[in-house]
Amino acid sequence: MTAIQGNQGRNSKLDGFQTHAVVDGWGKDNVFKGNTAEVNGPGYGFAFTPVLTNTVSCDNKVVGAEKGFGNVPCA
Question: Residues with Cβ < 8 Å from 24, sequence gap 6 or more?
Fold first, then answer.
């Protein structure tokens, strides 16, 4: 499990944070905690494509994401 924690992003062209499965075994088992996605754009704060075994905790902050917090609920 990989923790993506304490990061801050601003003014994205789409989503604040994304995961992708480009290579077999990649783009899964990520846990997003305590991040701030100040998106100010058309996407989500957190977008997992595909979702796989990625999770986003409810202590992440999302601002200005037109589609909302994420394409998955926080846990």
Answer: none
pLDDT of residue 24: 87
Please answer whether residues 35 and 57 qualify as being in contact, where contact means their C-beta atoms are separated by less than 8 angstroms: no
Alpha-carbon gap, residue 67 to 60, rounded angstroms: 16
Residue 6 banded pLDDT, cuts 50, 70, 90: very high
Domain assignment present for 75:
no
What value does the mean pLDDT of the chain take?
96
Provide the number of structural domains found in the chain.
1
pLDDT at 59: 98
How far is the C-alpha of 39 from the C-alpha of 8, rounded, in Å?
10
| Residues spanned by the domain of 25 | 2-70
Question: What helix, strand, coil percent values describe the chain, rounded to 5?
Answer: 0, 50, 50
Q: Is residue 23 in some structural domain? A: yes
